[in-house]
Task: structure prediction
Amino acid sequence: MKKLFTTLSNIWKIEELKKRILFTLSILIIYRVVCQVVLPGVDPNQLAHTEKSGLLGLLDMFAGGAFSKASIVALGVMPYISASIVVQLLGIAVPSFQKMQKEGESGRKKLTQYTRYLTVAITIVQAIGYVKTQVPQNAIVIDPATFYIISAFVLTAGTLFVMWLGEKITDKGIGNGTSLIIMVGIIARLPLAIQQEVNSVFAGNDGGLIRLVLEIVALYAVVMFTILIVQGVRKVPVQYAKRVVGNRQVGGVRQYIPLKVNAAGVMPIIFAQALMFVPSALIGVFPKLQDSWLHQYVDITSLTYNLTFAFLIIAFTFFYTAITVNPMQMSDDMKKNGGFIPGIKPGLATSNFIDEVISKITFPGALFLAIIAILPSLAIKVGVQQEFAHFFGGTSLLILVGVVLDTLQQIESYLLMRHYDGLMKTGRVTGRTGIPAATGTTGAAL
Result:
């Protein structure tokens, strides 16, 4: 505890870090306040008992409840994330976008601008669909046609405002702004989830306090397991040739390429979850399908649902890793910088070696990701309330762990640059001492 207070004291001694943390907190508070502002022309009392499930429930969780409240920022940053994914995929498939990715800062600015334009287009479409399908008619207190037009503009402006807040956090705050906004939305649901679980545990005759303690211990173990997966890397050694620059000798040192066990991040779960919502959507449109085999995919605790879900996650993990991690580019970058993997010839042999290593570590990473994804279903099966069960795994837990680790890593960097101890005396956040990395990308969204 003394170590913690000393570290917090050190944080406040660094003026720049203190300003960044306070700026980030102020922006997040502004976002949470705006989430409570309802669309003009909507009676909030008619929305009090509106609950979202399935894909809509996932969107509501990411928006911190703003989706179900018909807030002016109901769509949150999801349109921006969708646009970012599309631009990222275009950077792999379209030569002109590939060229922009290689142009450095100027190319990055162009891609950012295209992402913003695409965000506006996606938001307008989603805003129209949202006000048409998610706002009850009895909640609209003005002329419906006027309401739809005004709401489309307001929702679009709200998403752009949230996107701007995220960019400000990234530029002047601490951590990734978009990810922090999503994380705050998820955490906003935690108090209600805990309250529901406590009421449920003490209302029944199934263990009371002992059961609650066991659930907390299980949640702690799941979080530790998730951290292990998020931070897991396979370090491939890279040797750099010695060179003489002026009167100095540079190079000749051994560094590492940190290949992540879970290079795809949370995207496989999001893609798989989107597909798993298709059967319930079809049943909603065609009620006669309720008695068909599709009904097995409506119950998220069923064996069929979870096996299919796990298989899709494993498949999407391999797919997304293949399109985001480019062994050939990593090999070329090493060759240009005079680097080589000991015992492996530069060029094609290096590319094949990296590809083989990625293939070997991707399967266990995909398997562990699938286990994390189905843990909420298992928690519901043993009696945990659905709202609290979402924190036992899945998208929400991966986002929380990833964002917290990334933010801690940045704070650690500020402390260590000023020769202060980091946040933890033992162990480390990945990147605390800096893993020397050869050039290459293993990016993952969110």
